[in-house]
Design brief:
The chain is mainly beta. The protein contains 1 helix and 8 strands.
């Protein structure tokens, strides 16, 4: 992701269990759960990703160039590799 970008992401849970989605460094503005817009968007760094569901959020990459993690915050899921690396780069 380029430093200074604003992006909207939808993450999908295709499993039969909820997951506790957590992202480091950049909070996100949660705008939809399962495709349904929230009455009032909310800024978070952790949200419940519903079983067989989706979260849609917007995030800004303003201050940090480098690598950070997003992952399931449930320890047994984390240990099974439910993690992703995000790299933010300056132009």
């Amino acid at each position: 992701v380029k430093l200074g970008a604003v992006e909207e992401w939808t993450i999908i849970n295709e499993h039969s269990e909820d997951h506790v989605f957590h992202i480091h460094v950049n909070d996100f503005e949660l705008i939809k759960v399962n495709g349904v817009p929230l009455d009032e968007p909310v800024w978070l760094d952790t949200a419940i990703l519903p079983r067989n569901g989706t979260l849609t959020f917007r995030t800004r990459f303003e201050d940090y160039a480098g690598v950070f993690m997003m992952h399931c915050h449930m320890m047994n899921h984390e240990e099974l590799g439910m993690m992703q690396v995000v790299e933010v780069y300056a132009s």
